[in-house]
Predict the structure.
Amino acid sequence: MTPKVSVPVATPAKKAAKITATTVKGPITLAIDIGGSGLKAMLIDPAGAPVSDRERVVTPAIPTPLMVLKGLDKLQALLPKFDRVSVGFPGVIKKGVTYTAANLHPAWAGFPLQQELEKRWKRPVRVANDAAMQGYGAVKGEGVELTLTLGTGMGSALFTDGHLCPGLELGHHPWKKLTYEDYLGRRGLDRFGKKRWNKLLEEAIAQTAATFNWDHLYIGGGNTKKIEFAPGTNVHIVSNETGLLGGVALWKQWK
């Protein structure tokens, strides 16, 4: 029996201090991560450091746009005032519109999420793919860097010298007899079991290295806690907060 390996995880940020008018200078960003099982949020300062605890509410059982928006209303009410919003969404995003949401609900196709949140909260909003936002919080900006999120599905984002290559949906790419997401998302974990899932993840890491020739790979998401092998050179397990801490980068990248 293969012994369980202790996997190094990026050190989580220190517990955030309470926000006051004098402790934070510059715009406060409400960073939101929309997931298949949970909606998460945190306030971050202009440098990308947390200035609040991470809050979470359960994703609605039927995650239509209306139901998720109601959940987001509850989530943002748990936090102090903010100046702008960054949202990581599990699907293809173009100009603030959600085009796909394989692990949420078909009604998200063509939904103007950015515009709707701006109307509801009276704040400027930017929306990006959730793996891309995680990547902004993790990448070094050196060479080719790939991020993967292991949760309900499997998200992915590719960066070259810190610049995002938008639109990558590796999770839906054919692999073996199915797709990467079928093997490495929650369905794969439930179907194949943790031992086989770990073996498949090892194979996928090797395959992505051969496909993208990445210099660094970052793996995040709730199911990283299921990993039982040493990922290897230049492979980094990142904390769940990383997907939120990348929220400031959306305002730096899209001026």
Notes: The chain has two domains: 29-130, 133-243. The radius of gyration is 18 Å. Confidence is low (pLDDT under 50) at residues 1-17. Helices lie at 65-76, 113-121, 130-138, 180-184, 186-212, 242-245, 249-253.
